[in-house]
Design a protein that fits this description.
By secondary structure, the chain is an all-beta fold. The chain is 0% helix and 45% strand. It is built from no helices and 11 strands. The chain has a 4-stranded antiparallel β-sheet, with no helix packed on it. A 4-stranded antiparallel β-sheet has the order 5-6-7-8, with no helix packed on it. Strands 9-10-11 form a 3-stranded antiparallel β-sheet, with no helix packed on it. β6 (62-66) and β7 form a beta hairpin. The chain starts with 11 loop residues before the first strand and ends with a strand.
Length: 118
């Protein structure tokens, strides 16, 4: 806790990278090498996301970050910070994304979404 504010999102471990909100619930991301503890990048702003309650979800070379304001970013699982895609829905997200096969499920405050290839 920082100033009485709980840290809500859990980190995600993908390969040898540990990714997490870099500053409480704010829209920033940090990435560390899980074995050495070396910072690969720290407190990178997630443009379009003010705050995060949902834990990150990841698979392969992608990390999905759902913001409370309805913006979801796809961040590359790499040693350097790179946003692969930005998506905005007219909803807010407090629940963590779920990945099943090639489908991404987002439970919004108003609706449930399934994003998949056609």
């Amino acid at each position: 806790m920082k100033d009485g504010t709980p840290y809500v999102p859990s980190p995600v471990l993908l390969g040898e990278r540990l990714l997490f909100c870099g500053d409480g619930n704010k829209g920033v991301i940090s990435c560390y090498h899980a074995k050495t503890g070396q910072a690969l990048y720290s407190k990178q702003p997630l443009t379009g996301i003010d705050s995060i309650y949902a834990s990150f979800a990841g698979v392969g070379d992608r990390v999905y970050v759902a913001g409370r304001n309805g913006t979801t970013l796809v961040v590359k699982n790499a040693d350097t910070f790179e946003v692969l895609a930005t998506n905005k829905l007219d909803d807010g997200f407090d629940a963590s994304p779920a990945i099943v096969g090639d489908e991404l499920f987002l439970k919004g405050n108003k609706s449930m979404y399934c994003i998949a290839k056609r």
